Amino acid sequence: MNPLLDQFISESRDAIQSIGERLLQLENAPTDHELMDELFRLVHTLKGNSGLFDFPELTRVLHGAEDLMDAVRDGRISYSQSLADQLLDAMDFVSALLDEILRNGNGDLPAESERTAAALALTDALRQLITGQGARINPATPAPEPAMASAPVTTSCADEPPASTFPLARIPEAARMDAYRRMVHGQPCSWVSYRPDEDCFFKGEDPFYQITQLPTPLWRRVSAREPWSAPETLDAYRCLLHFESIIPMDLQALTEHFRYIPDQVELSPLSPAMLVMPTGDAHDGIPTAEYLQTATAKLQSGDHEGLIQASRLLLELSSPGLRVASALRWLLLVLETRPEDVPLQQQLLDEIRHGAGISQGTDTAKAAAPPSLAASVQGITDPIAGIIETQAEILALSDAPPWLPGRLRAVAASLRAAFTHAGQLTRLDGLDEALQAALDQSASAPLARWLAAHALPAKVGTDPVPAAPPTAAPVSPAATPGTGNGPGDTRKFGRRMEDAHAGPSAIKVDQAKIDRLMNLIGEMIVAKNALPYLAARAEDVFGVRELSREIKGQYGTLNRIADEMQDAIMQVRLLPVSFVFQRFPRLVRDTAHKLGKEVRLVLEGEATEADKNVIESLADPLVHIIRNSLDHGLEPPEERRAAGKPAAGRLAISARSESDRVVIEITDDGRGIDPAVIRRKAYEKGIIDEQALERLTDQEALNLIFAPGFSTASQVSDLSGRGVGMDVVRTAVARVNGSIDLKSRPGEGTRLRLSLPLSMAVTNVMIIVSAGQRFGVSMDAVAETVRVAQTDIRRIKHRMTTVLRGRVVPLVALNDLLALDEAQHPNEDGEMAVVVVRIENDLLGIIVDDCRETVDIILKPLAGFLGNLQGYAGSALLGDGSVLLVLNPRELL
Amino acid sequence: MGIETNADTLRVSDILGVEDAETLLDWLLKHPGGPVNLAACTHLHAANLQVLMATRPHITTWPDDPMLADWLRHALNQEE
Q1: By the 8 A CB rule, do A258 and A154 touch?
Q2: What is the predicted ipTM?
Q3: Which residues contact A468 (CB under 8 A, 6 or more apart)?
Q4: Using the beta-carbon criterion (under 8 Å), do B29 and A216 form an inter-chain contact?
Q5: pLDDT tens digit sequence for A91-119
Q6: Model's pTM, two decimal places?
Q7: With an 8 Å Cβ cutoff, are A239 and B44 in contact?
Q8: Contact indicator for A198, A240 with CB cutoff of 8 Å
């Protein structure tokens, strides 16, 4: 799943949560405009966001909710309980969709008729609130308000039998027979009625294209919804088309095809039986009575051949345009294709009988036909029957899982509920016995036998289960008969969010809470560090060696757990560098534009993670560096072309992890930095003297740009070079224990390399002793510790130096640096302890009295009046309760 | 693309876009009844279909594309 979608889902969940809260608050304060505005804004944002993705159902429902909230906000309608219910339902639906998207994993939401129907119903309900409450008008009459006119008016098929919603009887018999044959051969066919919106041309839709992209229809009709006006007054851009067709496609595929305009189409799957509909003129004088007698007898005795022959005979006698002929043709077709479908055949015979008895007009005949067929459809899709069938399927499973008893009980419970619901309690006789037998035998068979004997025949037989009222209830539009999904599995939608609560995979936590955790783990580390002291005391003071060893053992365990815990908390605080990087494309674009330069920005390793504080501290230095690169580094296009470079400069920012540090490199292919220019400038500004001018290497000269007060730009632009030079950058980076270095070649470009710790929460320091006090020095700065014989210390111009591995290292005494009036003590062999620290790229030896162990500490910056003290990085609490001052060698000098 | 008129016949080639509906209607108003030649037409926007349905010009040649021809015949002739 892509990060954008991830974010969308998590944000949407938050929004839905807030919407729910606001709605409940509004119940107490229904006139609170601020709350309404807030609510509108939330819904609006949610809708806008959903538009980024291909989830038309989601957007549709949210759009409806937005319109409703807009009306509420404008005071067109007032807040009410039912409005809140409707909105909450909509949000539940959205939430269910989000769950589904999450479950699918790949960010897809395949079209599904049930879902589309649910979305439509919800949207309709929302819109009806706007219009219904606004003017109290009958929804059937055209609304005077323009808002209503633009609202999609859909014919809800929920409360009408499917046969009456589309005029199958109008379709010529040949086309219906063709469709019938195809369906019998397994080709699903669907009814499509497509009424494009009147203003659909203005939305860029082409209904004709939409419909011609479908497979060749078995039958089609293109008509106008109202008579065309005279050519002179014709408005070609007001769409009045109406397409009706039978398409050889299943409902699923069609729903997908029309998924963006579900409110403009009516789709229904067709079943063969629905098409069997004799049409034609009424008849008289045809000797049907005798035929019916023989036919019924043959049908009951199962004599197909006889029935076919008799029917053919009568068909030859009848005029083909007659209704009876049509019925006979259908009968022959059904006999040929589905000889086992006795009820349907019987129905056709009844049809002939009715036609013969009363002289019916074609219109009434047409009207009479659908209900009888609808009843049979009803019988098949009856929810109770569906449930029973499903139970039968479950019982037919041949496996014997460990949970078989549970399954059997569930089946029995379902059956009991189904029959009770249908008011057929008598049918339940023997169910308990069968269940008991099944449980005793650990087999489904007894229950299956009971079901077969009691329930199944009745289902399709002459005693249809009375239509259960809940199936027609509007709460579950998805259960519309004829949508293809058995109403038995009316699932997910309409169900409340709480019923299927899916835990969100991410939670938002206040940063203060994580900081607190961080502090707590810090204290724990300090407390843990007290154990070695305790062990030492146990041994030295109380002389219990065993105890000392045990304490050390315990310490080892604690140490490991504390380390892991610390690591885990660090993980929580990690942020990807993209957090800072994401603002660069815009920054680079705008800056380059202002400078008239062409720049190609390349970002790499945006997923590299580091502690939140480190990442945040990076933002300003990086912005400064990038501005410098754009302003001073990259040349204008003409200059670049003249230098044989591509006109567009390349600015690359890359991040990567290197052991426990994050390395960020900013590289440009600009004009580079000329050491000679730097030297001269530094000399002019009095940063270096004449001797240094000669002595400095090129690299050293480059490093001068980090010196305070140095700025190479001869002209102060409003972008960079405002006097705050690179020294600010270096200080900011140093503040988070980072380092910065610069490489540049004139004419080829510049590379700045920032190295930062992954985390700055726990610092590893070495404890040193001087003048009887303990100090800490960050291990990051320590290059090595050595013992230097006093005789090896030389004085050059009052400065102490020594030679370490062939290199002259300046030495300073810590007591001098701290202005402690005491000399450093050598050890018994007359050697001085020296901590060699690295400051930038130079080594410096600090003479101390002794070097001790290294410890992990939580460094707290000095606060309050001590905050201004130079030379200290901060303080920390040691395991034995004492305070350790941690030195900052750079500031000491 | 679009509409080409010569010797009192309107010839459609390739695709008739939504803007062409106006041109088509204008021409048909001046030449009621057509004739219109659709042989080279591959698709026409629904707005054009409306114009054709409302004005019922004489179609001299149906599109070469059988699918489109079928649809247009159904729409314009209402043959069942």
Answers
A1: no
A2: 0.88
A3: A382, A383, A384, A421, A422
A4: no
A5: 888 888 888 887 776 666 666 777 777 78
A6: 0.41
A7: no
A8: yes
